[in-house]
Every structure is written in C-alpha cells, then in structure tokens.
C-alpha cells in the first residue's frame, strides 16, 4: 500500500528534513525494492542506501519541494545514482565487466537481477532528463518508486491518460537510447 492513500499536507518549498521524516516509510520501501532488485549482488543495504541518499540530499543547498511526488522522484534518483555509482566502482575494480542491457517494461523493477544493467539505464535516464525532465520524473516515479499510473497522475497534476501517454513516450525514448527495439 502506498503512502499516498492518505495524503499528508505539504507546504510549498518544504525542505528535505520534514519531508524525509514524513515519508520515511515510503522512502524505505523504495530503498528495499531497489536493493531487492539487485539480489545477492546488491552493493548496499536498504537502510544504508536510504540514509546515504538523505545525507546526499541534506548537503545540497536550497533544495525545496512543492509536493511529495517531486520529493520522492528526487529521492529515488538520488538512490539510483548511489547504486549506479557503487556498481561502477565495483566494475572498475574488475577486469572487463561488460554491461547487460535490460528491457524497459513495467516488470523490470522486479525482474532486473543484473545491477550492471542499471548503469546503462542510468545513462539513458540522464539523457532523457536532459531532453525532457517531466518524462524523466514519470520514469522515476513509475519505475523506481513503483507507483502505478493512477497513483502518479494526481501527484503530477495530470489525468491518468496523459500520464500513460507520457510514460509510453518515455519508454520509447529510453528503448531507443538503450538500442532496443521499440516494440515492447
């Protein structure tokens, strides 16, 4: 069950600390999901990942979030970046360390067992964010936070159908960036 079943009040421009405390359970769920996705090869525990993301976010000046959705998207990006950085560090220590590209579909969050695939996905998401930050935010909320389209649409002030169209566009752009066929 998502923390969005009973929305909490969010003050415009609210910083990291109050949102982190309010949404700790939801953030921990996201971190657990990310670590579980890595399986036995996970470079970090869920609590460590969550707390490192908090430390990273709290060091940044002038972070303000107008709503929970944007905060969760930013926090999930921070967690994703930490995992990708750790995977890259491990690969640098290994010889070779070829990357496996993963298909981007709605089941990838549960099925992705090769953390190396996250490096390619992270690079593709950075390209997408440079092209269209709103599409990257939808991917963060849908893929990394695990929200359904029905949950993320109201967070972003969109209709469910508009959110679905944007999700499909983001998937197409990511598939192109990953060099995969656009049919899936």
From TrEMBL:
Presence of keyword Transcription regulation: yes
Can you give the residue ranges of the RNA polymerase sigma-70 ECF-like HTH domain?
Answer: 17-177
Q: Which keywords accompany this UniProt record? A: Sigma factor, Transcription, Transcription regulation
Q: Name one GO molecular function term.
A: sigma factor activity
* Protein's GO biological process: DNA-templated transcription initiation
Pfam families in the cross-refs: Sigma70_ECF
Q: What is this protein called?
A: Gll4071 protein
Q: Which organism is it from?
A: Piscinibacter sakaiensis (Ideonella sakaiensis)
**Taxonomic lineage of the native organism:** Bacteria, Pseudomonadati, Pseudomonadota, Betaproteobacteria, Burkholderiales
């Amino acid at each position: 069950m998502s923390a969005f079943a009973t929305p909490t009040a969010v003050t415009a421009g609210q910083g990291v600390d109050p949102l982190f405390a309010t949404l700790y359970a939801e953030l921990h769920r996201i971190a657990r999901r990310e670590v579980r996705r890595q399986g036995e090869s996970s470079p970090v525990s869920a609590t460590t990942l969550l707390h490192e993301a908090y430390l990273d976010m709290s060091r940044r000046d002038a972070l303000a979030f107008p709503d929970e959705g944007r905060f969760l998207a930013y926090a999930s990006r921070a967690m994703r970046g930490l995992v990708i950085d750790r995977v890259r560090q491990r690969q640098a220590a290994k010889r070779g360390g070829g990357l496996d590209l993963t298909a981007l579909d709605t089941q990838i969050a549960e099925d992705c067992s090769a953390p190396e695939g996250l490096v390619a996905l992270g690079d593709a998401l950075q390209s997408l964010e440079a092209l269209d930050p709103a599409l990257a935010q939808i991917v963060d909320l849908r893929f990394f936070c695990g929200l359904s389209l029905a949950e993320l649409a109201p967070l972003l002030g969109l209709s469910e159908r508009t959110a679905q169209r944007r999700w499909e566009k983001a998937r197409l752009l990511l598939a192109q960036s990953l060099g995969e066929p656009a049919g899936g």
